[in-house]
């Protein structure tokens, strides 16, 4: 049985994650590859970094699909004299194409947000910020948890279901407080604080939280709740994870959905388990 062409596979990927739903600043779609070449092996990964390219080449992948773009800003050369150009040359020399699904995968049904929401136990959910023309797509997800729990138990669940990273899981709030609702945003999420507050959830799971936005959110929330201390008030509580870890769960959904859409069993998919989070070590404070 003949395998689908790269053009066939890209058509399926773009049906799952329409490029038109990506943010205006984003760079998604086919980055490199011959649309007429056959595709039998597809590797899914978060980052198009050298270690992932090594994995793709060693496995004999015909297509590498990554979440993060290789070229987010325009370039005038892809010569192998730069590390990004070298990625392109290594892939093409091995007969492996590169495709990117970024913010279009963030917002899609069974995309990055849904995968994260499933793992942390959000049910009956909806987008945190829905697209104007499609209520099923949008940034983040929000809804009730499967059952009431404490912030401590919830944080441990998040740590258990996501890939281990040097950062681990950071938490802001009363660990013994009961929580029943949550919001999630894969990747950097402190720009969505107003939407999270408007959703009136108990806890917010995201990545890359910065000091000032997080501090101001907690202080504002505590003040609006009556001036209580931020240690026990100030909902939503915050659960901050590594950027890579928050987006990695989507890869399994993407791989499964691609195989299902192609349907004939000629394409094998694989999810990279390489931890491409850039941080490698965490040193605990001595308390001095």
From TrEMBL:
Record keywords, A-Z: Metal-binding
Name of a matching Pfam family: DUF34_NIF3
Protein name: GTP cyclohydrolase 1 type 2 homolog
Family affiliation: Belongs to the GTP cyclohydrolase I type 2/NIF3 family.
InterPro entries, alphabetized: DUF34/NIF3, DUF34/NIF3_sf
Subunit description: Homohexamer.
Superkingdom: Bacteria
């Amino acid at each position: 049985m003949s395998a689908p062409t790269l053009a066939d596979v890209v058509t399926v990927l773009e049906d799952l994650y329409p490029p038109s739903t990506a943010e205006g600043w984003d760079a998604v779609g086919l980055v490199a590859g011959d649309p007429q070449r056959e595709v039998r092996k597809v590797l899914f990964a978060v980052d198009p970094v050298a270690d992932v390219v090594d994995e793709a080449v060693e496995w004999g992948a015909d297509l590498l699909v990554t979440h993060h773009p290789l070229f987010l800003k325009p370039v005038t050369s892809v010569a192998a004299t730069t590390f990004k150009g070298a990625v392109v040359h290594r892939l093409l020399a091995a007969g492996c194409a590169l495709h990117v699904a970024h913010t279009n995968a963030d917002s899609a049904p069974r995309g990055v947000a849904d995968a994260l929401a499933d793992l942390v136990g959000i049910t009956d959910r909806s987008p945190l910020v829905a697209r104007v023309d499609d209520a099923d797509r949008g940034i983040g997800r929000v809804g009730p948890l499967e059952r009431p729990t404490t912030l401590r138990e919830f944080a441990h669940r998040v740590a258990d279901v996501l890939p281990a990273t040097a950062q681990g899981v950071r938490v802001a709030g009363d660990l013994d407080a009961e929580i029943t609702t949550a919001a999630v945003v894969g990747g950097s999420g402190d720009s969505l604080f107003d939407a999270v507050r408007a959703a009136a959830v108990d806890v917010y799971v995201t990545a890359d939280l910065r000091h000032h936005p997080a501090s101001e959110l907690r202080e504002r929330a505590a003040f609006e709740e009556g001036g209580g201390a931020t240690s026990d008030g100030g909902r939503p509580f915050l659960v901050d994870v590594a950027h890579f870890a928050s987006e990695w769960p989507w890869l399994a959904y993407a791989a499964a959905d691609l195989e299902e859409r192609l349907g004939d069993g000629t394409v094998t998919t694989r999810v990279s388990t390489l931890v491409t989070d850039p941080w490698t070590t965490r040193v605990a404070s001595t308390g001095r």
